[in-house]
Specification:
Blueprint (H helix, E strand, L loop, with lengths): L10 H13 L12 H8 L7 E5 L5 H8 L3 E6 L2 H14 L4 E4 L11 E7 L10 H11 E13 L12 H7 L5 E2 L6 E4 L5 E9 L1
Parallel strand pairs: 1-2, 1-4, 2-3, 4-5
Antiparallel strand pairs: 5-8, 6-8, 7-8
The structure holds S-adenosylmethionine.
S-adenosylmethionine binds next to helix 1 and strand 2.
């Protein structure tokens, strides 16, 4: 895993890369519908009431279900195209959410969140930025808030998607700050053929 201080790309280049992926239809991660893990976590009461952040929301198939389940949702993505589509879909459905085009490594919310649904935004970020992102996630959650994390398993170096191996994740989300569950992770099949590992982690 890279360390703070490693060089990462200028942020405008990063945004352009994601815009190009959407423009060229290279969106192999997109399920076209909400992830089954969201439904399971909603049904089993793992997603607290209140304010929920979805960073790197993409086309945001999960956002409508979260809003319909009564959560106050903020959805953030660096790319304008999925953000525009999501805002239009919510509008059509008469649903309300805060939809923001922003870089999660620059953006700051006005108020903390009760939960963050982290579905493969981390694996989209250059690992040189992971420590910064972890600090931000911790700062955005209220104490006792819940991080619903889906860690992408690629088993290879390079990316995106970057491999979020469990040893790296346990180092990044330090147990001194994050209370990891005792239960085994959920294995969630990804449209690319890869697997996400789902954890419900509590910010101490
Ligand atoms: C692998 S896709 C996942 C999208 C969505 N969560 C899903 O599972 O369908 C990663 C998303 O993160 C967004 N992204 C990448 N870097 C970002 C950044 N620095 N800030 C905000 N969004 C970012 C991309 O535009 C893309 O939509």
């Amino acid at each position: 895993m890279n360390r703070p201080g490693d060089v990462s790309k200028p942020r405008t280049d990063v945004r352009e890369e994601w815009e190009a992926r959407y423009r060229d239809g290279k969106v192999g991660w997109d399920r076209g519908e909400p992830s089954p893990v969201l439904t399971r976590w909603l049904e089993t009461g793992r997603i607290p009431e209140g304010r929920v952040l979805v960073p790197g929301c993409g086309n945001g198939h999960e956002i409508t279900d979260l809003v319909m389940a009564g959560r106050q949702v903020t959805a953030v993505d660096i790319a304008s195209q999925p953000i525009g589509r999501l805002a239009a879909r919510l509008n059509q459905l008469g649903l309300a959410a805060q939809v923001v085009q922003a870089d999660v490594l620059r953006w700051q919310p006005a108020e903390p969140f009760d939960a963050i649904y982290e579905q493969t935004c981390l694996c989209a970020l250059d690992p040189a930025n992971w420590f910064d992102y972890e600090q931000r996630l911790a700062g955005w959650l209220r104490p006792g808030g819940i991080l619903l994390a889906l860690f992408m398993q690629t088993g290879v170096s390079g990316g995106p998607p970057y491999d979020c191996s469990l040893p790296d994740m346990r180092r990044l989300f330090d147990p001194a700050r994050w209370q990891w569950p005792d239960e085994a992770p959920l294995e969630v099949p990804h449209p690319t053929g890869l697997t996400e590992l789902g954890f419900v982690i509590r910010r101490r």
